[in-house]
Write a structure and sequence with these properties.
The chain has 10 helices and 9 strands. By secondary structure, it is an alpha/beta fold. The strands form 2 sheets. It has a 7-stranded mixed β-sheet with strand order 1-3-2-4-5-8-9, with helices on both faces. Helix 2 crosses helix 3 and helix 5 packs across helix 6. Keywords: Hydrolase.
Length: 254
């Protein structure tokens, strides 16, 4: 069963993190949603955070994980927020189990195919040699040789934890990511459609959702709107959490 953080009472709201993320990334926003009358379930998807590791890493497998999580927690009808890989996962879930999803929010990802583009990040992560028992500073120094953006490095550093005193490790399943990265870019099949209200939120400085993607989005999600948060990149919910929260709440409470 997937690890989750559950907070609040009311209508169930699932939050699905992006690639190399985890539930902790959404803790502050999750508390805000809970205060507005939602029972917030922030999940760690397989091979991420505190959830189990598996050699199988596909959207089909993750979809089944989330379905079984909903069944185990008696969640018959939910709203979903998903970012990046979690947004693609949310799209698959909503189109495959539309009877279970009331409203859907997709953060900075489109239904299209994405080619591999995490090579520098994975190279940096693989360059970290935990056998020499590096400190947190040592790990960041290694990552900085491959990942120039400070915010991205801090995002990756959140995955560090102490296995035992003096021994750090990453929480995610890096070996499986090394061999299954192509799966993350998978597009939605042409026949998959979700007719309930859907909100796409994109970063104004991000290139993940382009104007040219709008037609494809409408084909899969005919009852959708697209909002843009200006001057933020792919991690829009972290760069401007206030506007992300306001757009999300206006949509969820409508």
């Amino acid at each position: 069963m997937l690890y989750s953080k559950i907070e609040g009472e009311g209508k169930p709201l699932l939050i699905l993190h992006g690639f190399l993320g985890m539930s902790d990334n959404w803790k502050t926003l999750g508390t805000q949603f809970a205060a507005e009358g939602f029972q917030v379930h922030i999940l760690d998807l397989r091979n991420h955070g505190r959830s189990f590791h598996s050699d199988i890493f596909t959207y089909e497998a993750m979809l089944q994980d989330v379905f079984e999580y909903c069944q185990a927690n008696n969640l018959d009808k939910v709203d979903i927020i998903g970012h990046s890989m979690g947004g693609k996962m949310a799209m698959f879930f909503a189109t495959k189990h539309s009877e279970m999803v009331d409203k859907l929010i997709v953060a900075d990802i489109a239904p299209k195919y994405y080619p591999q583009h995490h090579q520098d990040i994975l190279a940096g992560l693989n360059a970290v040699d935990f056998s020499i028992k590096p400190s947190r500073n040592d790990v960041e120094t290694t990552l900085a040789e491959y990942v120039s953006d400070f915010g991205t490095r801090q995002f990756l550093m959140k995955n560090l934890y102490w296995i035992e005193p003096g021994q750090l490790a990453f929480r995610f399943n890096l070996p499986v990511f090394n061999t299954n990265l192509e799966a993350i870019g998978k597009e939605l099949d042409a026949n998959l459609v979700f007719n309930n209200p859907t909100l796409f939120i994109r970063g104004g400085a991000s290139r993940y959702i382009l104007d040219s993607d709008f037609e494809n989005i409408k084909q899969h999600f005919p009852n959708s709107n697209i909002e843009t948060i200006p001057n933020v990149g792919h991690w829009l919910h972290a760069e401007n959490p206030k506007m992300f929260y306001e757009l999300s709440m206006a949509f969820l409470k409508k």
